[in-house]
Every structure is written in C-alpha cells, then in structure tokens.
Specification:
This protein is α+β, with helices and mostly antiparallel strands and 396 residues long. Helices cover 44% and strands 20% of the residues. The chain has 9 helices and 16 strands. The strands form 4 sheets. It has a 7-stranded antiparallel sheet. The chain has a 5-stranded mixed sheet with strand order 10-9-8-11-14. The chain has a two-stranded antiparallel ribbon with strand order 12-13. A hairpin with a 3-residue loop joins strand 8 and strand 9 (197-201). Helix 1 (13-44) packs parallel to helix 3 (72-94), helix 2 (50-63) packs antiparallel against helix 3 (72-94) and helix 4 (212-228) packs antiparallel against helix 5 (235-269). It is globular, with a radius of gyration of 25 Å. It starts with a strand and ends with a helix. It binds zinc ion. Zinc ion is lined by residues 347, 349-350, 352, 366, 368-369, 371.
Length: 396
C-alpha cells in the first residue's frame, strides 16, 4: 500500500529564510525553463524536451556553485513538473482544443519543492539518535525539526516541502505501508451524502454538515474585499494575500479533520460500506455564461449555481471519499460505490419509485404503501441494498 503523511515543520528563523530561498530558486528555474520552451515554440515551433533541459542544468551547476546549493534531483523534479504541464498542453492541442500556454509562476503560485528519493539531497529522520524529536535534512537548509504527530509506516519514497501561508510542511510519500486489518463486526451500512446532513447512515445515524467555510465565510469575504482594494505589488497587498491564504488553510485543515473522524467511525463499525458514486467535479462545475448577442451576458442562474458549488465544495465529499477509501483499504473493509439514480425517490419498504414520494426535502412518504421515513435514511437503505446486490452479482 502507498500512503502519504503530512507534518508541520518547525524551522528556525535561519532555516525559514533558507526554505524561502529554496522555493524561490526552484520557481526561478521553473520560469527560466518555461521561458526557453516558450521562445523555442514561438520562433520555430520546436519543442524542447526534459532531457535537454536536465543536461543543460547539469552544465550550469558545474559552472556556478550558486546553482549547486540545492539538490540536483529536486531541481530535476521541478523541470519534470514543467514537462508534465507541457505534455498536458500538447495533449489538449492534439484533442483539438485551444488550451492556454503553461504559465509563469508568481510567488503565490509555486509552493512545493519535491525530492524524488529519500537519501538523495534529503533525509527523513536525519538525527535518529534523538529519540523524542524528528528531523528532516534538506540540502541547503539543514536538519529541520518536524512535528511528527503520528508514526510513519512503510518505506519513505519521496519527500516534499510545501509552504501554506506562513507555515511549512513536509510531505512523505511511503511505499509498502502495512495494512492494519480490523476485526470483523458482521455489520453492513449504506451511506447517503447530502447538503443538509453531511452523512446519513442506513442505521439512522447523522453527521452534520461541517460547514467550516460557512463559519469563516464572512471572514474570508472581508479578507478578499480587503485584498481587492490593495495596490498591486504593495507590502499591504502581500499581507492581505497571506491573510486570505491562512483562512483557506484553516478551512482545509478542519475539513480534513472531520473527514478523518467520519471515515474512522464507519470503518470501525462496519465490514461493508455502500456509498453513492459521486462525480463531484461535474456537480461543481461553474455555470458558463451565455452571450446575449449584444456583447453582454444573460443571467443564467450562475450566481445560484455558484452558491450550490460553495456548499458542495464546503461539504468536501470528494475529500471524505478519498480518505474513506484509504482507511477502508488499510483496515480490510469493503467499499462499494453505487449509482445514486433513484435512491432518493424509491420506497425502501415496497420498492415503489416516484418523484411524489418525496414529500419535502426531509420527509419521505410512499404514495403506494404509505411508508414514512426520514428521506436521507430511506435513501441510505436503498444505497445499502443496491450495494449488497452489486456484491452478490459480483460473487455469482
Ligand atoms: Zn412503499
């Protein structure tokens, strides 16, 4: 199994400056390599390859010790990242679309440096003689203290450093992480995901919608307005950007935390978990404005849709399902994705399917047999039933 771990780093002031320089220099490398590729493409439609740029980098490093301050491998990883952006660009061109050219990265759009191999320009747990403190050694930065809040299992493969606002994180990607199989409980469950309640189980349990974004929405809106009023390139603008980023970070952390808790609860209690197969990206796509033929745009309920976008994104179903699938795999639990069509309008008792069964948003009342239930619980039972049917069909 593969798994990643994210830990807060506690760099000294000196190390913080080195980390910022490391990020800046990798960004400069990315932008310079991009410039070279753009020019070659613009002038003669020639595409420069990763291999060419990597060889050039090697020559540059040999001639200039300043460039050799950082790990060659992490610089190569940055060039590979650019290569990936170009591949995606050319794939879209080939597909007949008109994609935007890969862009130069401004300071706020480049936040990660990757070391592709532990031991090559970086070392996890670099001071093993310290039993109580964990360090990561990064070339050009030193041994940085890490707040390792949980044990790391498996073999560390890649090490990344990420800046989020004023915080620095180290992200480990590990291979061969052993599974921790949980004892069987003999219980199965269906899970309905909604906007009013984040989760409802077929046993009637509900987890409220973690509307973190709603809670900090006011703060965030004010911070964004404040940012819009600042002059480009000013010191105050930089501060306002940091404030907005910090609020987004807060939302992200809280969302992850509640997704972990909900997933843990399900995985601890049930052997088989059936959930809706959601296509979050489709549901949250921004509504495209319609031209009105006079150079303007007609209202198209984009505002209403973006409100829904917000609550869907807020609910973080995608984040939750990703975490749930990792935990289920690790614990040896079975996860079944079910097509959600009709699960909310079908009677869980008699199977009668009609739009009218849904009396209100919260209440289900069957027009055929009179069965009344909480609408989300009714849906969760249908999801469980559909999941078990899929499972039986697969076993047959
Ligand atoms: Zn019925």
């Amino acid at each position: 199994m593969r798994r990643s771990y994210k830990f807060l780093m506690r760099p000294t002031a000196h190390q913080q400056a080195a980390l910022a320089a490391c990020l800046d220099d990798h960004r400069a490398l990315y932008n310079a390599a991009l410039e070279e590729r753009r020019e070659a493409y613009r002038r003669s439609r020639v595409s420069i390859r990763y291999g060419d740029q990597s060889a050039q980098l090697k020559a540059i490093r040999a001639g200039d010790p300043d460039h050799a301050r950082w790990s060659f491998s992490s610089q190569q990883a940055t060039l590979r990242r650019l290569d990936k952006a170009f591949r995606a660009f050319f794939d879209r061109v080939k597909a007949g679309r008109t994609p935007g050219f890969p862009r130069f990265k401004g300071r706020d759009w480049f936040d990660t440096v990757e070391w592709p191999k532990d031991g090559d320009g970086c070392r996890w747990d670099s001071q093993p003689e310290h039993p109580t403190t964990t360090y990561v050694r990064l070339q050009g930065v030193g041994h940085v203290r890490v707040h390792r809040h949980r044990p790391v299992r498996g073999r560390v493969k890649t090490i990344s450093v990420k800046r989020e606002g004023s915080r620095w994180y180290v992200i480990l990607s590990c291979d061969d992480v052993p599974a921790e199989i949980l004892p069987a409980t003999g219980a199965v469950v269906g899970v309905d995901m909604g906007v009013a309640s984040f989760l409802t189980t077929s046993d009637g349990e509900q987890v409220g919608n973690p509307r973190h974004l709603a809670a900090v929405a006011g703060e965030l809106a004010a911070a964004q307005q404040d940012l819009a009023r600042k002059k480009r390139g000013s010191k105050r603008r930089r501060k306002a950007v940091a404030r907005v980023a910090a609020l987004h970070g807060k939302v992200r952390r809280q969302r992850l935390d509640s997704a972990h808790k909900s997933a843990l609860m399900l995985v601890a209690d049930y052997d088989v978990i059936a959930h809706e197969a959601l296509q979050v990206t489709n549901m949250t796509k921004r509504a495209a404005p319609k031209p009105d033929g006079a150079g303007g745009f007609m209202p198209n309920r984009a505002a209403a849709k973006s409100g829904l976008n917000k609550s869907i994104l807020d609910a973080g179903w995608g984040v939750f399902l990703t975490i749930l699938s990792h935990k289920a795999e690790s614990a040896g639990r079975e996860l079944i994705a079910v097509n959600p069509a009709n699960t909310s309008r079908t009677c869980a008792r008699c199977g009668h399917c009609a739009k009218e069964n849904r009396a209100t948003q919260a209440e289900f009342r069957c027009r055929a047999c009179g069965h009344a239930a909480h609408a989300d619980v009714n849906a969760a039972i249908n999801i469980l039933r559909a999941g078990l049917a899929l499972r039986e069909a697969a076993a047959a």
